Amino acid sequence: MSIQNASQQLLQVEKRQIELESQIKTYQSALSKLQGENWQKHFTKQLTSIKDQVGKMEQKLKDRKMENKKLKEERDSYQKQIEDLTVKLRESQKPKKSEDKQADKKPMVCGGQMNKEIDDNIRSIAEKIKPSVIERAKKDNQNVKFDEFTPIQAKSQVVAGVNWFLKIKTGKDKYINIKVWSKLDKTYELSAIQYNKTEKDELGYF
After folding, report:
1. Gyration radius from the chain CA atoms
2. Does the structure show a pLDDT above 60 at 189?
3. Whole-angstrom Cα distance, residue 111 to residue 38?
């Protein structure tokens, strides 16, 4: 082999090597690009999967909130029913007003009359009931002059409270008999009046 032939072959080998290196670089670049696209696809796939999971979790949270809201509304509804029933139960346990009025107007008689000495308590009762007596006398069209209002005789009767029977001197030789109900709550109610009485008239039950 001549030197010239050897040189030509060497040049061809070097050229071939350069071409191979160029092809290798091309393949490496293509491979690198391909690998980059694959990783991008991989990350995109993972991201999409995560987004889907987050979406599902948000939907579950939303559903739970709706369920909690519904449960809260049901709880509030039951609570209101309980409160309403409690009020009705309390109302049903209270005595009716009509029954109270009947009980007030018709106290049960529990004992007979007893004579009482005139004391400060009886004078106080007479003084407290005096306005009611004057008003009742006007309604009854009785021409009674109350020059004085002095209790001179008293009897009591135990009922749901106490019935007081008082003979009241209203003027010179002028008397009336009154019946006063002393209630359990310490208030007084005028029950009846007998007009044109004398000092000697009996103070009986009326």
Report:
1. 57
2. yes
3. 111
